[in-house]
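Side project, low priority. Logging it here so it doesn't get lost.
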Amino acid sequence: MIGSVFLETLKQTWKQMVYWGVGLAAMALLIVLMVPLFDMQSVAQLLESFPPVILAMVGIGEDLAIFTTNEGFVAIGFFGKSALIFAVYPVVMGMRISANEEDNGTSDVLLSLPIARAQVIVEKFLAYALSIVGVVVLIYLGLHVGVIAGGVELDVARLAEVTFYLIPLMVFIMAATMLIAILVRRRTVALGIVTAFVIISYMLQTIGAAAEGTVAESMGAVSFLTYYNAGEILSQGFIWPHIAGFLGLSAAMLLASLYRYEQRDIAV
């Protein structure tokens, strides 16, 4: 039955979605409540005293004015260098699409039912993508609660753009995890490769941002994290070419995963 895997996956996942969403929302709320504790003019003076390399390493670009606003404080404090935290949830979900069930030997039981392999992959992917949306919505609610509870003046529309920009980023990470897990098959090996992929991307993005004007700057362009820049999103809003790139690559990796999953034997 079409939709059965999707609904069952949501049924098994909604609690984890809530736990992750509430936890990240609490972190976001805490950052918002900290805003009144800082004098942004003093923060601006402090940042101006730092070398550009140090600022780039912590995720602050050349336009310091953006990061010395209340919105900029939240963006750098919560979104700026929290990419590794945001990557964990989609990695876990991506591993669940195929690797976990193959590793514990239940994939053959599922596929013995009158369900096509493509249906299993697509419906699980869509269900976990929807759970990512749920996590991001909870994060935004945490920010909004912080604004109301703390009486903090924030441009919630701008912060909404930074927050919901996480969706294509996290879907991309999940799609990459799914593809690697399907290609490698062994869960522990796949998890190691995915972890290395995320950490190396993080390092390349940091090195590229800290070494502008050098050969190392081009290394940053290789990192997918370069295309989630909280400062740029605050100043420009949604950067649609980057969003399209994340979603297009995710779709391509989904198709590649379907092709490979249909061709190979399933671990039992």
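Brief comment: The two ends are 24 Å apart (CA to CA).
Revisit when time allows.
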